[in-house]
Design a protein that fits this description.
Elements: H1 7-18, H2 36-49
InterPro entries: DDE_dom (IPR032874)
Organism: Corynebacterium marinum DSM 44953
Domain DDE: 2-54
Length: 64
C-alpha cells in the first residue's frame, strides 16, 4: 500500500493488521511519486463527475 509520510497512516495500518481487517502481508510503501498515476485519475474523475454540492455543515466562503 502506497501512502504519504504521515505518521498516523503507519499507526492506522498497524491497527488494521492487529484487528484482522487488513492481511498481515500488506506492506506500507512511502514512495513520493508512486502515487502520481492515481492522483491523475482522481482529477479526471472529478471532471467526469462534475461539481458536487457543498455540505450545509461547511462554512460558507467569506466575502471581503
Amino acid at each position: 500500500m502506497n501512502t504519504d509520510k504521515a505518521p498516523a497512516l503507519a499507526k492506522a495500518i498497524a491497527e488494521l493488521k492487529e484487528g484482522g481487517i487488513c492481511p498481515p502481508t500488506v506492506e506500507q510503501w512511502q514512495v513520493k511519486y508512486l502515487n502520481t498515476v492515481i492522483e491523475g485519475e482522481h482529477g479526471r474523475l472529478k471532471r467526469i463527475l462534475g461539481p458536487k454540492e457543498r455540505s450545509k455543515t461547511e462554512f460558507p466562503p467569506t466575502r471581503r
